[in-house]
Design goal:
By secondary structure, the protein is mostly beta strands. The strands form two sheets. Strands 2, 3, 5, 7, 8, 10 and 11 form a seven-stranded antiparallel beta sheet that branches. It has no helices and twelve strands. It has a single domain (3-161), classed as Immunoglobulin-like.
Length: 162
Amino acid sequence: MHPHSAWLAIGLIACAAMLPGAARAASSASCSVDTSSAQIAFGTYDPLSATPLDGIGTLRIRCDKNNVGATFALDRGGSGSFLPRSMSSGANTLPYNLYKGSPNSGLVFGDGSGGTQTASAVTAPVGGGDFVGEVQVFGRIQAGENAAYGSYSDTIHVDVTF
């Protein structure tokens, strides 16, 4: 198993571009981590809405072999906590979280500690000699949060082991 790291940006309105995952050779497969579709841009949050604001992103591992298993783990981000994570805009913060499965599942996507769960994927053929495994990341800002006006963001570290 080889660990790989990448970054996942989470934010409102405007977010930084994703950094591509580092490519390293595994003992039997050459793989790279792709976070280009992982950024979750929630859009505009309305603190007066009775409905939570949801978003979705996708983490991928691309390999030169089929049936390569990968485990994805997410850190706490800038808040230092999984329950909840927190985006910031200057000194202001806005709680949110990331989930494995829909936000309604209650399965917080993390590193396996503190009641969180990691996610797994297995590569499958996508054509052209490429094999891809992917995991979806679901984000949610609960309704009724007291948020000051601003552009909020957080950066999540992604560890991938295969």
